[in-house]
Design a protein that fits this description.
heterodimer, A: about 70 residues, B: alpha/beta, 16 helices, globular, binds flavin-adenine dinucleotide
Amino acid sequence: MSMIRWRSRRGMLELDILLSRFLETRWESLNEVEKNAYLGLLEYPDAELWDIISGRGAVHGAEKRVVELIRTD
Amino acid sequence: MERRKFDVAIIGAGGAGMRAALQLSSGGYNVAVLSKVFPTRSHTVAAQGGITAALGNVTEDNWLWHMYDTVKGSDYLGDQDAIEYLCRMGPQAVYEMEHFGLPFSRLENGKIYQRPFGGQSRNFGGEQATRTCAAADRTGHAMLHTLYQRNIQAKTHFFVEYMAIDLVRDGEGRVLGVVAFDMEKGEPLLIEARATLLATGGAGRIFQASTNAFINTGDGLGMASRSGIPLEDMEFWQFHPTGVQGAGVLISEGVRGEGGYLVNGNGERFMERYAPHAKDLAGRDVVARAIALEIHEGRGCGEARDHVLLKLDHIGREKIMARLPGIREISINFAHVDPLEAPIPVVPTVHYMMGGIPAHYRGQVVVPARTGPEEAVQGLYAIGECACVSVHGANRLGGNSLLDLLVFGRAAADHIVEFLKENPASPPIPADGTDLARSRLARWERRQGSERVADIYRDMQRIMQAHCGVFRKAEVLEQGLVKLEEVRRRLDDAAISDHSKVYNTARIEALELENLMEVAFATIRSALARRESRGAHARDDYPERNDKSWLKHTLVHRDGTIDYKPVRLKPLTVPSFPPKTRSY
Ligand SMILES: Cc1cc2nc3c(=O)[nH]c(=O)nc-3n(C[C@H](O)[C@H](O)[C@H](O)COP(=O)(O)OP(=O)(O)OC[C@H]3O[C@@H](n4cnc5c(N)ncnc54)[C@H](O)[C@@H]3O)c2cc1C
């Protein structure tokens, strides 16, 4: 978990804010598949991850659900 | 402590660190690059606007015009030798990146695309120039990816997720390497190097409202300061006029360029009063100051009257969707308003640090000594946002920072090559060489303490925002300094509850806070001492620029003492641009 928290520190403030909020409020409630999907999302470069979160990149299945959670308060 | 030996240790894998690393690795040197995060996640990735260089692809251009604009933009505090070097080398730096494979956007004739930015002129203050090269709105991202790929090919050795803690110096003041901390294992590592280069980026997190990512904690400045090196021109921070209130996320000038404008709590379009001609498109410092004044005088918006509104719904849905989709997305996510329907709450937000570790234009760190104000620290270099060369002086122009990374990244590497040839042997590490770093690490092993790092962090940011923001005056700054002293005392009494080894983010944040605290003190002390207004430093009680007394660089030491050194008004090969009133 501590590694995930560190890797959620990014080069863009937009992502820092959304991902840290997500970890604080949503992480506990995720199932294993969703947690793995989040790890997958962290592998994207910042600019692409921001595109995905702001709805300009295609993601499916568990990734899509996680992105929805990142977007909503 | 585990040891590794390299020719050069580079701390920071942003644009600056990676440009220098590439030059050195390609030259056959054994280079270590340390980064807190994966290299391509460095903050350079956030730069969207582009990189400025006088290519003349759209309008006729000349590096001397770029130099004039940069000197004027700096409010004459920039060193003209360094600015000449920056602007003269600009086109070459961009073409090198093109050659390395950076996918610049193209004009119809195939040349690199350029866009106009504020503060760019033709013919020494004439018509608008078009000088900023861009790879869509992804220039920083493209730069990092290109440099990273090239560095891998050149066999640069990356230490990813290593945090540098402190420099290692010997009795003669030579820098012999750095102690770092492996985040994954939680173990320290001594990197011995004949030359050490700091490229750790900015420190915008000292303020509550900041466009900077969480990682910008001024670690290089903390390290330099703790090892006895003063910091230069720390009173100069650029505030961007439109950061989203509460979040800090940047709303680019593009919005105002497309016709958006600012209104105060009375619904008044107040920029008409401050800049009747340019209105909402006046310079960043002018607009930021106007907003601060409106809020200060009780004309802010909202219940707390603590922000103003950026209105763009009148631009129309179609234009917003076509030209500003990213802005709409940011507004919905971070201000929770859809700008198609309602205005965006904004405040002036800290954006860029003009000051930093004093270095000359070939990257060597220089400090006052018996021989004069600029004696080189043997074995130590600084480049990028953490350095003060000083090309940005009292105010940076948009697009000049990315250029600074490339030009001085390469220049420092070239100087290091000469230095390594002259200094083939590495001096021994003294027995106490790693003490500074060890004691910092040991300090956070302590379990007793009543204060929490997160609380101190937040209070420091609030103090800096309230007492050292856009508008400054003596009594407010003095109060701020007293409050900051209190907060620092609390830091002495802080402890963390997590003492695990692996990715201990609590420890990392505590170490970062110590660095931020160094930067905050340097900033407020320098701001209090400079009794004039110049560029981004605006003193209510000294509203005018005063060249007679203050055309000089501040050097603030850790103990609070302040030195000054002259501005280098003499360029390398061309005549000087003498100080004039700065008006747009
Ligand atoms: C939102 C935004 C937009 C911008 N847009 C533009 C633009 O369009 N054009 C322009 O010219 N400028 C722009 N700027 C400014 C510019 O992006 C930065 O000044 C520049 O990218 C800084 O680059 P750097 O290489 O000095 O540092 P960074 O890119 O910040 O890299 C710092 C590196 O140091 C490492 N590091 C830090 N501390 C440590 C430590 N203790 N141990 C190990 N590693 C460490 C980090 O991991 C990172 O790799 C923008 C800035 C912001 C905030």
